[in-house]
Amino acid sequence: MDRPIYLDYNATTPVDPRVLEVMLPYFGERYGNPSSKRHAYGWEADEAVAVAREHVASLLGAEPVEILFTSGATEAANLAIKGYAEANASRGRHLVTAATEHKAVLESCRSLQRRGWDVTVLPVAADGTVSPEQVAASMRDDTVLVAVMWANNETGVVHDLPAIADAVHARGSALFCDATQAVGKIPVDAGLVDLMACSGHKLYGPKGVGALFVSRRARRVRLSPLVDGGAQESGLRGGTLNVPGIVGLGEAARIAAAEAAVEGGRLGRRRDGIEASLRR
């Protein structure tokens, strides 16, 4: 059967062969649990996770200690929004987000709304953007968190995150950014935000693994865990780590950091060419 031409890379990408190559040993001979601290198998796995954490942190402009591994961006968004809200409920119970956010963000906000939180969902302008002025006007004294994505998965709109971050932080609130569609494609800077999510399978890594940036610098973020268990991931996500997936995400991040400028130009030219053809 003839297969169609695939143009849905915002939904998922194939795994880069170089990524698969570094993952394969961790399904076989390097099968240790990184939580096993008393033997070489565990040390080997723990080192692989540490290297991957460094690669992801480098791509995001973060420190390794600020990176938590998750099962994907959906879990990362849930942990960021619900975890931050629960940990900071004494400061206020109001959230702000935008109508065009991914369902992982909107449904996390609705879940909190059902539990008594007040949520403002901002409409977007005709060009799909949310302005910093609009965000600032929506904030209140009890606003604890604003959630605005970096790049939209359906329209490709890129929000003005630096200006939005300034508006949010001027009011003393925190900013969560779903950067899933931006990471590896355009430059991102985790230092602008307090929490940021990304996913492996959007940048030629494996499915089922993602990361959450949690600021520990100028604005130290407190979260309540969603998954209780062991002390993995700074006590914020219990459970044995997905070592092959994490290794794959790390390698995909390393490749993206090295090749993003060239790849971005190539993709931009292809995108512009397709649009020009369609317009003609």
Please tag this protein with its features:
7 strands, 7 helices, 7-stranded mixed sheet, 280 residues, alpha/beta, globular
Number of DSSP helical runs = 7
- Give me the Rg, rounded: 19 Å
Percent strand: 5-15%
The structural class is: alpha/beta
N-C termini distance: 31 Å
**Assembly state here?**
single chain
Q: pLDDT average, as an integer?
A: 96
Uncertain stretches: none
Helix percentage = 25-40%
Reported for the largest beta sheet, the result is: 7 strands, mixed
Instruction: Count every beta strand, where a strand is a DSSP E run of 2 or more residues.
Output: 7
Physical arrangement of strands within the biggest beta sheet: 1-7-6-5-4-2-3
Gross morphology:
globular
Give the topology string: H per helix, E per strand: HHEHEHEHEHEEEH
SSE blueprint:
Elements: H1 17-23, H2 40-60, E1 67-70, H3 73-87, E2 94-98, H4 103-114, E3 118-122, H5 132-138, E4 143-147, H6 161-170, E5 174-178, E6 195-199, E7 210-214, H7 243-279
Parallel strand pairs: 2-3, 2-4, 4-5, 5-6
Antiparallel strand pairs: 1-7, 6-7
Helix pairs in contact: 1-7, 2-7, 3-4, 5-6
